[in-house]
Task: structure prediction
Amino acid sequence: MGPSSSIQSFEEIRTKYGNEKLKKAFVKAVERNEKQSVQLLNHSSIEFATLYLLRDELSSRSLIRYLNERNKTALSIVNDILSERRTPEPETMYAICDEPQHLHSILSWMLLTGKNENLSMDYRLVIDRCASLLTTIYREQTILEDVVDLMFVRNKNNHSYHYLTWSLFEAREPSAMVYIAEYFRSADSEDVDFCTQLLRFIPEINEDNNSEANHTLFLRWYEANLPYLFYNGESLDTAKHPVPYEVALDAKYLGRPANLNTGGILGLLTDTEEQLLNAYYKISNKEQIMLSTYSFRLRKHDLTRWQQWIQTPFHEQLALAKEETHD
Amino acid sequence: MINIAGRPVSPESLSNGLPGGPIANKIIAIMANSRAVYYFSSESELEFEVRMRLAIIDSAKALFQSRAQFADFYTSRCNPAYWDLTENGGFRLKPGVPASVAINDIFVNGEMYAFECATAMIMILYRATLQVLPEQNFNRLFANMFLWGWKYDKDLAIVHRIPEDYLPGDIRYFKNPDVNPMTPQWQGENGVDMGDGTYFGHGIGIKTPEGIIESLKQRMKPGATRMPYLMAPATRPGFKYLYRFSYANREAESGTEIRVFNEEFVEQKVSLDEYFQQMDDYATRYITVRFG
Result:
């Protein structure tokens, strides 16, 4: 059996004949030639689930020494995640996480090649932790679509998506909502319900609308508010319908982007802008929403007119906005 | 300001039926001194909310003393005599088991249970609800109970928003923005406002806000720069919704009739007792229910 056919066989056995057959086939191969068999696991085409399933055999037979750095580190990460106690002291907490770049690529490999498997609760925990390390420590945005897909698979299979959802929101990347909203187009009502639950904080999105209407509402809201969104820290730990992002209404009113983390207006404000904001903060929240929405729409449709409008005294701005929005 | 049946009411003018004690007095005082108006249909509705807030605090204490442990969703456990542990770490009420028995068991046989802090809050709200509703109504309302974080709360009519005032019995959230991603179960802590300057958080205990923040700081990632903090929203059960199923409401509504209408809008009058006995049937077969 040549190396490439063995690799193919390991992967094929797992996917076609199941996990137990894989373990038996591996043991047989090791008994013939342990070093060569184990080194076959070092090939780039091997997926994380295969390594995970063989970890007990590798450990009990002292075969880990034949693994490459990727696999050794991946198994260390697994052991670290599954270890019963994690003391809070930093000295022990990050023992295996001293090599950021190395770990980044290995965590990505574990998540991306392993996410489609559902081997056990422990396995799902390992995948969840890989996702949270990638989104919070490495701020990895290329995996967000995969995390969203995994959340929907978990929901359908009645498995926990609680920590995955937190990982996704903690990425502090509003575009992740676009991937969620794509599930409004799913033919599966469970997907649509879950999607609605996650995006219900957006005005007018609710269970009573059809999914197409909700998708349109999302796209309109996203387009109108993206530069002004800020992350407020809510997750499913906080509420059934968390509000992960809020709109910085003052930034939207002035047409200035907001800081994604704080909601503060980016850049320095002119004296005129300061004065306008002082007046703006004194009106009711309902009026603020109306004025910010009016300002955005005017800016979008007629920039010249908006530039004239924003220079008029605040009370005149408000009066015109009220008149034109029939408030 | 407190407004009962359309009239402003001062705390002194309230009857002696209200629960006493410093926490109850504090709840009434906050409402009475607020710029916001707290509307109630009757004094018994106000009494219901005060009693339920006290029951939330009592249930938080009971959970603290129950020896129930903290666990993430992967390692949750429950008493198999009353609950089925689901694959996502939730607890589903076993068929034939009254919800009241199963909820009480969590507080009595706590050592058989382990769960996350959000699930703990739902358990506290259920126990508090059981303390203020007739057991029969509780079991009817929550016959299909499923405990899993905040997700399944329909019959508690939970509201989560920034309130005008914070009141004892509110549930607040301490966010841990720089939590170690290896332990996301410490991403934050739901805490019951105990009314005496302390909060109960499952897995942390009863502490001041500073104490809870200090506990969360132990779970931050190395090099963390953002400290844990108390978020502005408060979570509350739907007191007005639950009041409809209470003893107090039945007394307040005694002598009144309930008019129900079927799909052909044919009217039928039933007594309050009849309505409560066949509540599920009326809810599914009749489109409108009016209190006469």
